[in-house]
Amino acid sequence: MRNKMKFIGIAMILVVVALGYSKSRQPENLDTLLLDNVEALAAGEAADGGDCIGSGSIVCPFNNTEVAHVLVYYSLPH
Question: What is the pLDDT of residue 10?
Answer without folding.
Answer: 92
